[in-house]
Structure formats: structure tokens, C-alpha cells
From TrEMBL:
Keywords from the named record: Cell membrane, Glycoprotein, Leucine-rich repeat, Membrane, Repeat, Signal
Entry-linked InterPro entries: DNA_repair-toleration (IPR053211), Leu-rich_rpt (IPR001611), LRR_dom_sf (IPR032675), LRR_N_plant-typ (IPR013210)
First and last residue of the signal peptide: 1-20
Name of the molecule in the record: Leucine-rich repeat-containing N-terminal plant-type domain-containing protein
GO cellular component terms given for this protein: plasma membrane
Residues covered by the Leucine-rich repeat-containing N-terminal plant-type domain: 23-62
Subcellular location: Cell membrane
Pfam family, one: LRRNT_2
Length: 364
């Protein structure tokens, strides 16, 4: 009996040793935790005991290797811990470079804690298995690590809503499987890499509300899968490349609030699959291309605050749908076309032009 008991205890301890996380991963997690302060929810209270793979909040391990594979800490979540506290998360402190010792990580999500500051540890680019890197909604400053392109397995890179500065590292174009790039609302300056079009898997490129300058690289139109391109509220100049209107799945194009000049490429209006086009607040000139047709289906078409001349083209009546239209604050002139897509218009959508007339403005 005593012997059986001894063997069982031995077996159990062997099994739990096999199942628990390696002491080095545990130590790295504890070092990571010690650089942070989470005063309201107590999510780190669960980070005790030897087995970091067992019920440590936000930590999960690979079932075969027992190495830490995911770190998923979201400050806005449906988790009961948030409901109990009746509040969303808040955390201060920094992301410790100790995180780089967790070299089997595939996902790092440290999102919406509002107060985490400091820089992104440069060593994060040494995590060879990383697929998702999501640090949205903190106060992280400093640059994007210059060697970010070493993260060959990255599919999601989200640094939106932080205080990140510096340029977009040219190495970023070497991430072959990048699908979702979100750098919105930071302090990023410099130009979009000229060979950005190497990112063949990209479906969303969201760079709005930064200080990005230079021109729109025409290589962007080589990104076959790109459906959402948002460069709004930056300092981008130069023309809209013609080829953008020929992109097969592009459905949202936001270029508003820049210094874009030149004319509107006809391909953007006629045959493109765009449903949202915002070119507002630029220096776009010339005529609105007279190429609308049955394939034109816009839920929003905002051309306001530019230098457009000439009439509103008659072909706009052949568009299948124009939802929200705004051509105000230009130099347009002539009779506003009357017809079905144009039945629910308000004067403000046409106001502040040189000599537009007809419903909903004054008679011609
Ligand atoms: C287009 O962009 C402008 C300026 O950034 C913004 O004010 C406007 O609401 C946008 N239009 C639409 C239809 O979203």
C-alpha cells in the first residue's frame, strides 16, 4: 500500500512537472509583470504558483511543448473580471524586454490599457514565431523597431492609438504574410516605403492620423488583396496614381486631409469597385471625370474642399447608387443633374461652389 502510494505520488509529480511551464518562461513572465501596474482588476493576481500554463490570466501554452505561446491581455473585454469591477482596464508601466525571452510566442496582444508607456522593446523582432502583435490603445512612444521585417510569420501588426514616432521602417515590406497593418493615430513621419507593394497579402493598410509625407507609392496598386486603404489626415502630396482605380478588391479609399494634387483618375469613378471614396480636404483640381456607370456604387463619395472645376457630370445619374455625396467647397459650375440617385440631396452638399444651380440650390 505504502509502495503504491509512493509510486502514485512520484507519477503525479512527474506528470505535473511535464505539464508545467519551463522555469525560464515563468521567470520571464514574472519580469514582464513586474514592469506593469494594473491597479483596478487584479488580473495579475492569478500569476502565482509554478505552472504558468495553468490559469494564469491571459497566458496560454503550446500543448505539446508547454512553452508560452500566447499572451492575450485586453483592457476592454467581456471577461467576468471586467464585469465584476464595473470598469474597463487601465494599466501603467512599460513592456519589459523580458518578453523577448518567451521565444515561442505566436501572439502578443496587450491592447487598450490606455496607460502603458515606454517603447516597444527592439528585441521583439527576435521572436521568430510571432504572428500577431497588437499593442493598440496605449501610450507607447518611440519608434517601430527598425528590424520589424525579421518577423517573417507576422500577419497582424497593430500599433494604432499610441504615441509612436519615427518612420515606417523600410524592412516592413519583407514581411511576406502581413495581412493587417494598423498604425492609425500615432506620430509617424517620413514616407511610405516606395516598394510597399511587396506586401502582397495585405488586405487592410490603415495609416491615418499621422504625419506621413511624400507621395502615394504606385507600387501599392500591385497589392491584389488590398480592400481598405486609409491614408487620411497626413501630409501626403503629389497625385493619386492612376493604377489605384484598377485594384480588384479595393472598396474603401480614404485620402482625405492631405495635400494631394493633380486630377481624379477616371478609373476611380467608373469601373472601380470602390464603395467609399473620401478625397475631401486636398488640392485636387480639374473636372470630375464623366465616367460614372452602372458599376459605380458609392455609399460615400466625398470630394469636398478641393479645387474641382466644371460641372457635375451627367453620367452620375447612371450610377447604381450614390449614398452620401459631398462636392461642397470647390469651384464647380453648371446645372446639378436631376434624376433618381439625386432625389434626396441637400443644399449643403453643393454649397460653396462658383456657380452650381438647380435643385437643391437656386434655379438656373
Ligand atoms: C471625409 O473626410 C473628411 C475630412 O477628414 C471628414 O470630415 C468627412 O466626414 C469624411 N466624409 C465621409 C463621408 O466620411
Amino acid at each position: 500500500m505504502g509502495f503504491v502510494y509512493f509510486v502514485s505520488v512520484l507519477l503525479l509529480s512527474v506528470i505535473s512537472a511535464v505539464n508545467s511551464c519551463p522555469p525560464s518562461d515563468r521567470a520571464a513572465l514574472l519580469a514582464f509583470k513586474s514592469a506593469l501596474n494594473e491597479p483596478y482588476l487584479g488580473i495579475f493576481n492569478s500569476w502565482t504558483g509554478n505552472d504558468c500554463c495553468n490559469k494564469w490570466y491571459g497566458v496560454s501554452c503550446d500543448s505539446a511543448t508547454r512553452r508560452v505561446a500566447d499572451l492575450n491581455l485586453r483592457g476592454e473585454s467581456e471577461d467576468p473580471i471586467f464585469e465584476k469591477a464595473h470598469r474597463s482596464g487601465y494599466m501603467t508601466g512599460t513592456i519589459s524586454p523580458a518578453i523577448c525571452k518567451l521565444d515561442r510566442l505566436t501572439n502578443i496582444i496587450i491592447a487598450d490599457w490606455k496607460g502603458i508607456s515606454g517603447q516597444i522593446p527592439a528585441c521583439i523582432t527576435h521572436l521568430p514565431y510571432l504572428r500577431i502583435l497588437d499593442l493598440i490603445g496605449n501610450k507607447i512612444s518611440g519608434p517601430i523597431p527598425v528590424h520589424i521585417g525579421k518577423l517573417k510569420h507576422l500577419t497582424v501588426l497593430n500599433f494604432a492609438d499610441n504615441l509612436i514616432s519615427g518612420n515606417i521602417p523600410p524592412s516592413i515590406v519583407n514581411i511576406p504574410g502581413l495581412m493587417h497593418l494598423d498604425l492609425r493615430n500615432n506620430r509617424i513621419s517620413g514616407e511610405i516605403p516606395y516598394n510597399f507593394g511587396k506586401l502582397r497579402m495585405l488586405s487592410r493598410a490603415l495609416l491615418s492620423r499621422n504625419m506621413i509625407s511624400g507621395t502615394i507609392p504606385s507600387s501599392i496598386s500591385n497589392i491584389y488583396r488590398l480592400s481598405d486603404l486609409d491614408l487620411s489626415v497626413n501630409q501626403i502630396s503629389g497625385p493619386i496614381p492612376d493604377s489605384i482605380g484598377k485594384m480588384p478588391v479595393l472598396s474603401t479609399l480614404n485620402l482625405d486631409g492631405n495635400r494631394i494634387s493633380g486630377e481624379i483618375p477616371a478609373s476611380l469613378m467608373g469601373s472601380s469597385g470602390l464603395s467609399i471614396l473620401n478625397l475631401s480636404r486636398n488640392s485636387i483640381e480639374g473636372y470630375i471625370p464623366d465616367v460614372f456607370g452602372p458599376r459605380s456604387y458609392f455609399t460615400a463619395l466625398d470630394l469636398s474642399y478641393n479645387r474641382l472645376r466644371g460641372p457635375i457630370p451627367k453620367s452620375i445619374l447612371s450610377a447604381s447608387y450614390i449614398g452620401h455625396l459631398d462636392v461642397s467647397h470647390n469651384h464647380l459650375c453648371g446645372r446639378i443633374p436631376a434624376g433618381s440617385p439625386f432625389n434626396h440631396l441637400e443644399a449643403s452638399q453643393f454649397a460653396y461652389n462658383d456657380c452650381l444651380c438647380g435643385i437643391p440650390l437656386r434655379a438656373c
